[in-house]
Write a structure and sequence with these properties.
The chain has 254 residues and is an alpha+beta fold. It has one domain: Alpha-Beta Plaits, CATH 3.30.70. It is 44% helix and 27% strand. It contains eight helices and ten strands. A hairpin with a 2-residue loop joins strand 4 and strand 5. Helix 1 packs parallel to helix 3, helix 2 runs antiparallel to helix 3 and helix 5 runs antiparallel to helix 6. The two termini are 28 Å apart.
Length: 254
Amino acid sequence: MTTCVHQVPGSGRALTDVKTGGAGMARFLRGAGAMLSADIVLRVQDAFDKFVEPEIRDEVLQQTAARHGLLREVTILFADLRDFTGWVESTPPEEVAQGLSAYFTEMECAIDRHRGLIVQFIGDEIEAVFGSPVRYAVHADMAVAAALEMRRRLGALNARRARDAKSPLRHGIGIHTGTVLAGVIGSASRLVYALVGDAVNVASRIQELNKSVGSDILVSATTRARLRRRHDFAEIDAMTLRGRAEGVAVYQLR
């Protein structure tokens, strides 16, 4: 069974999730209540109480209280499985579902441990953010550390799959830092926590470049410039992102 813990930046210790009561939420709502409808408050609180710890929940509500969200510099990570279509075509649906669940569980543990938040699963793809809803100055370092742990966890998962005579899984990870609008958006009947901005598109496009480079983790020059810790990078020639005319500098994380 996989155990997930959070790594608190700079503390050298792990922090497990703790679910608490509504006292802290009540204090927050007294300050934000004038800006939020009671219906939205209850729906967001109910959804996030089930899945995240209180500090994330309260930050999400603060961003919701800002009506249109808050502008924030974050680091975004996209991960996508390779050859997913072929795997689905040649594998029973039950086995695909089990394999996806095992993969998502391992990747979520890595992201959680380094204080990231999974924004959404999109088919076989993961979108995660570091530095929002909760601010961290070292969000770029957190994202890179999470990507390295994702690499390690995928290797361990594939070792287990090999023992069961199953084919290995491969993925590509793209990381970029930029300013986004973060908050809860949606329709009258469905709300989601989302990131809006060009930085999201850039991170997604960088992830796609792994296919042509033959790498598993690519980092933008912007993210690399924010890193406080040293890592082993290989500079890639300027690459053109899908839908963009100008090339961008990316680095392969070794």
